[in-house]
Structures are given as structure tokens and as C-alpha cells.
Amino acid sequence: MKSCLLPLSPLVVALLAGCGGSGSDSSSAVSTAAAQTPTGTTLSNAASSSGTMTCGTPVKATTASGSAVISADTPSSDGTRMFASGSNFPLVFVTHASAADTLNWSVSDQVGKVVASGSTTVASGAQTSTLTCTSTLSGYFSATATLAKNGAKLASAGTRPAGIATFGILPNLASVVPAVTYSHQDQHRFGMQGETDNGPLLADLGISWQLDNRSLATMEPNGANTFSATADNLDAFFKKGTVMRFIRLDGIPAWASSTGAFQDNALPPTNLSYYQSYMNRVGQESSSIRATYFPKQSANYYQVTWEPDAVWKGTDAAFVSFYKTVYQGLHATDSQAVVMGPTDTAPEATTARLKRIASLGFGQYIDGVTTHGYYDLGTSPSLPPERLETDASTEVHSLMGQLRALRSEMASDYRSGLKLFNTEVGISYDRGAAYGANYPSANTLFAQGALVARTHIITLGEGVDQTWVFFGADYPNEVGYGTFFDLDHPQGQFGASNISPKPAAMAVAAMTRMLDGTNTLGRVNGTPSGVYAYAFRQLNNGAVVTALWTHNNAVWSASGGYSSTYSVSYSLAVDAPGTSGTVKVVDMMGNATTMSYSNGTLALALTEAPVYVVSTNASIASGHVTQPVGYQPG
What we know:
Number of strands: 33
Shape: globular
CATH class of the domain at 20-169: Mainly Beta
Structural class: alpha+beta
Helix content: 10-25%
Strand content: 25-35%
Radius of gyration: 25 Å
Strand order of the largest sheet: 13-20-19-18-17-16-15-14
CATH architecture of the domain at 20-169: Sandwich
Distance between the termini: 29 Å
């Protein structure tokens, strides 16, 4: 199962003036941005205290490509449409005007603020106008364009709505968060489903983990003893040693299934003895792979079942026996195996299962707990992780409430030291939505990005050791879970290669740069209702990073829009009382601003978009948090 705002740039305006600015919360943000584009032939570039975006004079050429009246793109050599801060990138407009016309264009950020704009004459017929641009503003951007006389605008492309062409500028935070030295590779905290083997994209997003399937159904689909344990089986992508394997085991082929057909662990295989011997070979192979390609990784991680609350049809005793088979098979040949489960759909479902089977000895057959993070099935931007629309008066069913209960159950009924991984959670568009020329709106995209960031911050802040982003590009049947648009297929397609980022993707790029290589300190104590704050510390006693935001149900709904301007004042303790100085504050898209504090506290105007405060007084941070129950720094 799968689930669903940034302060305006400049950040200092957002923080000190409550995010007033020129951002838009309406679903017409895409079209109004184009209406603000100046006419004529001059270029204008809006500046921010965090940086600027500038575009040079268009270079014109005749073209034979395309047929649309007007189209736009920011092609990149690696296919990601994401670019390094300060690098040159092309903004290309192709026009097929019936007569000479004027092309008006603009580039807006995730809240509709125009950051660059201009106009240029175009000749009749097929013409390409290429602008060379550069940006020290980071984040998500959408280009819009119209022909003054013709009135044409950009057509929709795949799952991307009409009126926009999107791209991203990656944060450069080297001077804001010090580099981290990892004592072992598996201290990295972020994985992702989708974009399998897409090295450039995963690197841009700061992703260090991908699934590598070793299910019986995958490795022996047609009969027994056809899988040979060897490191040569490894996908060439993983042989680079940069993105680590998380080994997925669920899936029983028809020949080994009690149902006579493939089944995703609805029931144990017919021959548990053979299944254990198969796991012997999986463990042997994984041990060899780790030694050969991942010598700095301390363990191999295996996920046994996948959302069993949705598929398992056996008894609890059979479930525990199944795990015993896998555990003993893997540990016999992989001395560093970390066997994990049960991976139910929501944390509260995982908690319920752990409670129910603890007395059956389940704890003997796992080395860690995995869950999926869907705090409410079909979660969308209108259902934020802090509150559910059906339970607005209590946090018990919120994401943080569910994770606290899960951590407590692990501490009470299971042995200490177990890791907790969230191996999937995503944010969809609103329930009942459909891709189309006019959907999603800019405001929906903004909301999705904010909730993706908030959901993973909460997950880590409540004591999850590793968290996984869901999904890469949009895919069929479940609308909007992608963090990228699929530009070729109107309903999305698994494995899409022609993609462009949504705000969610760029929020992930900023979040990983801020929080990878940290340990969790915990939730900040004493925050007023509606204010959420979690503190983290970089490995090896490094900098403190505190993530903060506010949420108010009254300004957050599919029908009323998702406010990017609602704000509340909050003072964060960053240093000892009586001291003054400066800290760096980073917005949801990775733009940094230096802010002053006095008497040890930093005054902030928090919005629905998280910000990150980088400070150095770890004793102050540690003294104002509640550490998750049972959490042990990695």
C-alpha cells in the first residue's frame, strides 16, 4: 500500500515576516505565474538572499523537432533534469508559430514565486530558442511560456499537467553542514523504491539503499536447485559499491506454493526444509557479495515478508515457524545477517502483530523490525502525518503516535538493540484524483512535497534508524505517489526513463543532505500545540540539526487549499542562556540563510514547510529532547 510547504524565498522574508511574499496557495498558481511575465525583449531575474537564477539572451535556430505550438524543456545529459547549484543549464523553448510572435516565459518556485522571466520574438515556423541559465537558488522550479498573439501554452506531458516544464537545482550545503565520516557504510539512513539502477538520480537525491530481490520466485521461478550462490549474480549497478543492497525475500513460485500458483507469502512454501536450504545459499551469496563489493558495510539486511497484514492467510504459529526457517537458513551461512520483519502496512499494524506473536517466540527469529509507514491507507496531502481527519483530537493514530507505540512494544516484548527500519512510505495526490491537463495543481504539488519531508523527518525523529522514500516516477493505478513526473505515459509507467522532478523530489534532496549521517536526539520538549520539532546530531559528535514546522488542520485541506503562508512564532533554544550569535537556517528546498539569536534562543516564524536549524551546542539540544524509547545511536 502507498500513502500522500516551503517558506517563500528569500528564507529570511519567510521566517521574519510569516512567509507573506508573493507565493500563491491557489490551484491557479501555474497560470498566474505566466500572467506576471513581463512583455518586451528584456530579461528580469528575481533575487533572493539565498541566491539568484539568471538566464542569458536566447540563441535562435530553426528546428524540425516536435509539433506542438509551444514546448519547453531543460534537458540534462543524465536524464534527471536536476542540475548542480551554480552550473549552467539549458532552458529550451520550441515554437511552431503561424506568424511572427512574442514568446513570454517565466520560471517559478514551488509556491508560485517568479524567480526569472523574460520575453523574446519568435519567427513563424519551427524555431528553437535556447537560454543558458544558472542558479544559486536550489529547489523545484517550473517553467511556463505563452505566445502573446497565439495564446498557446505548454501542453501536458505524461502525468505532468499542462502549463509547466519542471526541473530542479540541487542544494549546495557544504558550507552549512560539515562533512560526515562514516565508520561503516550502513550508517546511511535513506533508501528509495523506484528508479532502480538509476545511479545519477539516486546520487542527486542522496539515496544510499535500493532493493535487491532474492525471493525464491525470482531466483528459482521454474524449479528447485536452479540458483547457484555466487557473487557474480550481482547486478552490475550494485557492483559499483555506492548504493547498498537491501535484500527482499518475499515471493513463492507456483512449483513451491501450497496454492499451486505464485503467492507473495500468503502461506509458507510446501517444503520448509528445502526453503531453509535455499536460504543457506542466499546467505552464502550475500556474504560473498558484501566482502567483495561492500567491505565497509557491517551487515547484510534481509526483509522476509511484505505487508503480511494484506496477504498472509496462515496462522500466527505458521508465521513464526516460517521466520524460524528463514532465520536459521540465513544465519547458517551469513554471520552478519540481519533478518527483519514483519513489514506490515502501517506502524500500528506492525505493533499489533508484534504484540500478538511475541509469546510464540517471534523475537528469537528476527534481528530487527521493519514496517511500512502508512499512517492512514491512501494517505494524501489532505491527510497529514500529524493528524488524521477522522481523529483530530488525539495523536494516538498519527504517525508519531503509531511509531511511539511501536518503539514501546519493541522495548517491552523484544530484546534490546533491535534496529527499526521504515522500508516504504509515500504521499499520494488526494483521494479520487486523476491525472489530467489541469491536475495536479501547483498547490497540490507543494503540499505533497511538504508532507514527504515531514513524514520522513517524523519517522527518523521517532526512532526509526532508516527510512525509504516511495516512489520514483509516477506509475499506473495509484495516482501521484511518484516524486517525479513520467513525461511519456499519461497514467505513469513502471521504469519510466523520461522524467522530471516534482517539489517532493527536491525536498528529499535537501532532507538527505541535512539528516543523512546523523543520529536521532529526539523530539524537542515543550513545543506548543501545532509546533513540531526533532533534533538530530551528526555522527562523531558533529553539528546539531533541528527540523521544525507547524501544522494547522484549518489551513490544510483538499477543498480549501494547502497554505504556504500560515505561520506561528516559536523560539528554539540553540545555545546557553545569555549568549548570542548566529546559526544557519535551511528551508525545505535547501536554501540557507544566516540568522541571529539572543539569550540562547532563535526566533522563528514556522510554516507548514519544514526548516532545518544548524547549531553547535549539543548539550543544550540534548537537554531539551525526549529520546525515542529503545533507540540506540548507530
